[in-house]
Amino acid sequence: MNIPGFVDLQVNGYLGVDFSDPELTVEAAATACRSLLRRGTAAFLPTLVTSPPEVYRRNLPLLAELMRGPEFAGRLLGFHLEGPFISQAPGAVGVHDPRWVREPDGELLRRLAEWAEGRIRLLTLAPELPGAVELTRAAAALGITVSVGHTLCTAEQLRAVREAGAAALTHLGNGVPAMLPRHENPIWAGLAEDALTAMLVADGHHLPAPVLKSVLRAKGAARCVVVSDAAALSGQPPGRYRWNGAEVVLEPSGRLHMPARGCLAGSAATMLQCMNHLAGLRILDLDELLEVGFFNPALLIGCDPAGIPKRSRLGYDSQRHEFFVESDVRERV
Fold first, then answer.
1. Which of 166, 184, 194 is nearest to 85 (CA)?
2. Do residues 86 and 135 make contact, with C-beta atoms less than 8 angstroms apart?
3. Distance of CA 144 to the CA centre of its chain
4. Cα separation, 11 vs 251, whole angstroms
5. Are 200 and 168 in contact (CB under 8 A)?
6. 252 φ/ψ angles, rounded to the nearest 5 degrees
7. pLDDT for 32-53, tens place per residue?
8. What confidence score (pLDDT) does residue 93 get?
9. Threshold 0.85, pTM exceeds
């Protein structure tokens, strides 16, 4: 096995640093990125959740500055914008602030791309919104991979954006209400769309093992990607915290949730921890694990896996079904 680490398409923050924080600094962002890149993640997309326009205007250029520099070249691969073009419906909106949700707007997307210096690589949107098909085409024209998430779409609405160029499903099985219609729901619709790659949060809390196994069997490893969905509180000790004006709780088990809405608030895990949870379930062999954790995510956003700098290397303990950073076996989890 010769990969430098995993590729994570959904990192909201790390060690108390939130990439959507209106007071984010270059120094704090760089510290968080350095720390994460020492823990089995070889490259990732800093992710901004649904935010006020001024946060995008401020934070996208700030993070783009880091991406331009030599330290993070080939490691910060661009941006994932998880919103603002998502559903406002309870459950589907998750912990996103519904005040800042917007209907698809090509002019706003153009401004976001400009603020990001053309570095948006992934955009999560809800297909049921007016203008979603047109925005999908506009994003594809800008070289942005479109992923469906935080949605209550029908199978027909999902098919329409897939035909317009959508390529993936953001954290399939999450970003939906706890109770859904038995058959007509976005999860079944997403599983049935063979051309869409399923992104899965394999932290042990977002999806039970039988669900992970079922999705992987339905899609196959070639059409699955593992993401961490790491929140700013990943790497922090258990406790009660304030985030985005609400209380969130990080349990000793690692489960991160917002009691007021009864939903998860992202993940407290790194990609190394997610991949070790998945490896321990023994659903996939080693080659398939490398597909979903390294090759597939890079290819989904048009990144050549061979171009990711090899500043460290992962090892794999086949007896323990566990990955570790070879440069420091103390990084085992």
1. 166
2. no
3. 15
4. 20
5. no
6. -55, -25
7. 999 999 999 999 999 999 999 9
8. 96
9. yes
Residues in the chain: 333
Say which of 8, 18, 229, 328 is annotated catalytic. 229
At residue 47, φ and ψ (nearest 5 deg) are -115, 130
User: Residue 47 forms beta bridges with which residues?
Assistant: 80
| pLDDT given at position 1 | 67
Q: Is 229 a catalytic residue?
A: yes
Ranges in the chain, pLDDT < 70: 1, 327-333
Q: What pLDDT sits at residue 61?
A: 98
Q: What angle in degrees, to the nearest 10, is found between the helix axes of 106-115 and 53-68?
A: 40
Of 203, 269, 204, residue with least CA distance to 236: 269
What is the pLDDT, as a whole number, of residue 328? 53
How confident is the model at residue 246, as a pLDDT? 86
The CA distance from 152 to 177, in Å, is 9
In 3D space, the residue among 211, 207, 226 whose CA is nearest the CA of residue 272 turns out to be: 226
6-331, CATH topology level: TIM Barrel (3.20.20)
The structure tokens 């704090």 sit at 28
What are the backbone angles phi and psi of residue 240, rounded to the nearest 5°? -105, 135
Q: What pLDDT score does 329 carry?
A: 43
